């Protein structure tokens, strides 16, 4: 026996605390012990490079062994080893004093710690009733030693027969910790924590970790396939990533990593991060919510930085200056990468835009610096027929049914006909009548149809104070209206204009007091009637619905524009001028038909706006049959 003694710690009850529940995750002991083995190997290499020892054909490795009968789990490394003095110093003093410090600091804290990292050697006592160290230092003439401690401050240190340089830590597992005798469980732990450690880890002679951490390699040595393969490895059975960003810096903090834009899934939880946090290739956590900017949370991949404090609570982490700078750095790099893709491969950029747009717009709304980076590269689908030539941001064949444009380019084109006014649609199908009407007049319409756009438009209006955004169904642009035609006098007896006659008919037969009836002579292929929802009111309604997470109700108060130039409306006026309608109080066939037609024209306009509820749909269909029957009955009118 070389020595027997008491570990000098002040908190006598440190062992029960460690054992019980310093962490609910007992398994982290494994990461700590394997990391110590890797450190010991790195230290040996450094000593070797310094010429202090002959490394020869050094094959670094960590070997894990399970003995079910003895209930032991051993972790061996062929690293630097320890002399008796070093065991006394590093294990009895350093390890346990840091243990004590740790316990004092975090005992009773109800905040979960980010990585509960650096627990160190003593974390072995979370799962073991007895811990032994068998070690031989690399130093010449070193004597191998064997240290034993059974979960009390007493330890023993004796010489050992060991002849191989390195260290073996042998845990005799406590009751209830049998899972660590199962090779599958050990494989799982290696995969989780040690997969990318730069040393071969063997179980039953087989190497079970990947070792290669591609985020540490130079980006210039990696191909697209390398990045994709790594993504598949991290997130098996997922769709291919859209884009990746390789992060590498060593000033003012050390950080390596690869971030991927995943293909957006409809059920994605944008408040949760699936990014993996590492510290020197050792896995720490799957939760990076406090580290990366909120708008980038859906990004996946790996961040590896020894400068992220890991034994602090999540709230403290958020306040940490370095962490905030890291967040800014990541956002900047993501912005750079997006700009690069926009400039160098616009076709690809436009192709993945539907998935990127949410990230980018959300970032635009939440981060001033990021906004500056992306505001010129936010693109929108447009109705404009543009060729790729000469326009940097325009669609090229095969990307999408509609071309894309930036807001600035849109405004530039709009200068002549509608300076500083942006026509937009939020639903290509529901608003198709309106879109076509604009298109036929040569007015360009942007599609702002994602759920974030309601919000986004108001931000754009703040950033472009002269520009007004007008949804296609908000109002009629003067270029859509033929003012002379509506004012034409069509009834010489009463001196009434076409407009006035149509107004009268609809007021009398539609019977919708909350609907404002407006008449206009619309150009070209405009339908007989359209519904308008004033921009400001509609937005208010949309915002309220968004906040209450409900679908916006269609407002009872709206404007019905009757197109006096449409043949159907013209026919209706002629029909009403038959004289019977206005004079007769009864239900003449002509009167009935006029009423049905008014109602039908209104329903057609409604249908183009919002679709029907079941009741309206039924009455629409019934009326359609009635009208058609009537029109086909010989001599009915
Ligand atoms: N396998 C090993 N080979 C050689 N030395 C070791 C080994 N394991 C532990 N040591 C020594 O014991 C010391 C204390 O280890 P411990 O794991 O408690 O803390 P640490 O590794 O220094 O830091 P951390 O708190 O980050 O784990 C180490 O610094 C090292 O000098």
UniProtKB/TrEMBL annotation:
- Top-level taxon: Bacteria
Cross-referenced SUPFAM superfamilies, in alphabetical order? ATPase domain of HSP90 chaperone/DNA topoisomerase II/histidine kinase, HSP90 C-terminal domain, Ribosomal protein S5 domain 2-like
Q: Which Pfam families match?
A: HATPase_c_3 (PF13589), HSP90 (PF00183)
The GO terms this record gives for MF are: ATP binding; ATP hydrolysis activity; ATP-dependent protein folding chaperone; unfolded protein binding
Q: Which UniProt keywords apply?
A: ATP-binding, Chaperone, Cytoplasm, Nucleotide-binding, Stress response
Domain annotation Histidine kinase/HSP90-like ATPase: ranges: 25-177
| SMART domains in alphabetical order | HATPase_c
Residues recorded as binding ATP, renumbered to this chain, are: 32, 36, 77, 82, 167, 314
State the CDD domains in the record.
Answer: HATPase_Hsp90-like
State the family it belongs to.
Belongs to the heat shock protein 90 family.
PANTHER family assigned to the protein according to its UniProt record, in alphabetical order: HEAT SHOCK PROTEIN 90 FAMILY MEMBER
UniProt protein name: Heat shock protein Hsp90
> What is the originating organism of this protein?
Gloeomargarita lithophora Alchichica-D10
